[in-house]
Structure formats: C-alpha cells, structure tokens
Design a protein that fits this description.
α1 runs antiparallel to α3 and α4 packs parallel to α10 (229-244). The protein has 258 residues and is an alpha/beta fold. It is elongated, with a radius of gyration of 26 Å. It contains 11 helices and 8 strands. The strands form 2 sheets. Strands 1, 2, 3, 6, 7 and 8 form a 6-stranded parallel sheet that branches. A two-stranded parallel ribbon has the order 4-5. β1 (76-82), α4 (90-100) and β2 (105-108) form a beta-alpha-beta unit. It has helices at residues 6-30, 32-38, 44-69, 90-100, 110-113, 118-127, 147-165, 199-202, 205-215, 229-244, 252-257, and strands at residues 76-82, 105-108, 131-134, 171-172, 189-190, 195-196, 221-225, 248-249.
C-alpha cells in the first residue's frame, strides 16, 4: 500500500490548491469577464448582479473541490499499549482517547488485572470499544518456557479477560517480541509492532513524540506503554499531530485482518 508522510501530504495539498487557483482563473477568464463585457452598457446595477453570480459559481466550485479532496480513504495506523492496566495512568489515557474518539489496542498483563481497580479498567476498555489482547500473566519471555508453561501463561490471562468482559481474545503480544516454542495453536494471532516508541527507555515526552511522528507511516503498528505518565502525555500528543496529518487510528485487528 502507499505510505504517506507529512511532506507528501503537504505536497499534495499545495498541488490541489494550485489546481484550484488555475481552475478559478479559467472560470473568471472564460465566463465572468466576457459576461461583463456583454453587459457593460447595462449599468453598474447589472454588473453587480453578474459579479454576484460569478462569486456564487466560484464558491460552489470551491466547495465541490474541497468535498472531493476529503472523500478519499485516510491512511490508518494502530496505537498499541503494553504492560497495563495501570491504576494510575491507564484511566487518564482512556479519558484522552474518549475525548478524541480514538480506539486503541491494549495488551494487558493478567496479574495486573488482579490488582485493585484492574478489573474495572478492563471493563471500561471493553465498553469504550478498545481492543484487549493478551500480554501473558507475569510478563515473561515465552521462548524461555516449556510449551506447557507458555500456554498456562496465556490461558490464565485469557480466562480472566473473558471473565471480566464476557468475550475471548485471540490476540497475543509476546513480551520482548519472543514467541513460544510451539506456534501450532490455530486460534492465536501474535502481534508485534513496526514503530517502537521506546517510551520505556527515554521517559521523555517530547522525545517520544518526535520519534513516533517521524517514523510512522501508513499501516504502522505503534508500540507504547500505559504504565508511565510520560507515555500517556506523549500518546495524546501523537494522536493530535497524526490526526492533523490525516491519519485514522484503528484497533490493530483492523490492520491485520481487513
């Protein structure tokens, strides 16, 4: 698929504006000027009437051009968060997402759901339309475990998510990006990422924002964490900047399955 960066979007906008300007110039040359010449002797009143007609025609054409320019499909990206839920920071993130009408994907740790307030946060995620995925029970490297222990990590978290939301999840974000030794389970979809915010390393809001908005292109999966205040602040700024650039935020399953 075509990938859109900010420069390309701006360039397209400049071209569109030049085309509109040329089109309007052509209209003024072809119709209104000749019309005014034909009515020159009719007096100022008739001239004003013709000019009003021209202005209305130009305005209509400009509106049609604007509508055509915004009717295309917007480039999509997925914002994903690992290691939650955090009783301190996840609710703040959910507030910001709701305000912006954005849906995100949360890969949660089973043992964190058991902590005070964890189930309520998971329930809210589900009710507000976010995707909930599995990030194991103890945030362990699945490749270091036996097949039996790896599936236990996943199954315990799956069961708790279903108990809270009433729905099963088939999506897994393996900690550290390491897959279990056995990949034969047919109903699991392992989800990695294409843009790493490194928010767990820098913990610098503006550096996180700079990296993500610079690196992100169409169909990218952005990795972040909802257990740091700097990450939550950065995520909301990233949404605002990329939305202004024309991106649509979707849950990760829509990128992978559509």
């Amino acid at each position: 698929m075509a990938k859109n960066r900010r420069g390309e979007i701006s360039g397209a906008g400049e071209i569109r504006r030049w085309m509109q300007a040329l089109a309007l110039t052509a209209v003024l040359m072809a119709y209104p000027v000749s019309a005014l010449w034909e009515r020159e002797e009719a007096g100022a009143e008739v001239q004003e009437e013709v000019q009003a007609e021209v202005r209305e025609e130009i305005q209509t054409e400009a509106q049609e051009e604007a509508q055509e320019g915004t009717s295309g499909v917007r480039p999509r990206v997925a914002l994903t968060f690992d290691d939650g839920p955090s009783p301190e920071y996840t609710p703040l993130l959910l507030d910001g997402l709701r305000e912006r009408e954005v849906r995100a994907s949360f890969f949660v740790i089973g043992s964190n759901i058991e902590k005070e307030g964890g189930e309520e946060i998971i329930r809210r995620m589900h009710e507000e339309g976010h995707l909930i995925g599995n990030h194991t029970w103890h945030h362990v490297d699945l490749s270091d475990l036996s097949t039996e222990d790896a599936w236990k990590e996943l199954e315990m978290t799956d069961s708790l998510i279903k108990a809270v939301t009433g729905e099963e999840t088939a999506l897994v974000r393996p900690p550290f990006g390491e897959f279990p030794r056995s990949m034969e389970e047919p109903d699991k979809l392992y989800v990695k990422w294409t843009v790493d915010s490194r928010d767990w390393v820098t913990k610098d809001t503006q550096e996180i924002v700079r990296k993500v908005v610079t690196d992100t292109e169409e169909n990218d999966i952005i990795l972040m964490h909802d257990c740091y205040g700097t990450s939550v602040e950065a995520a909301l700024q990233i949404i605002d900047i990329l939305s202004e650039r024309g991106y649509e935020f979707v849950t990760v399953d829509r990128l992978l399955l559509d």
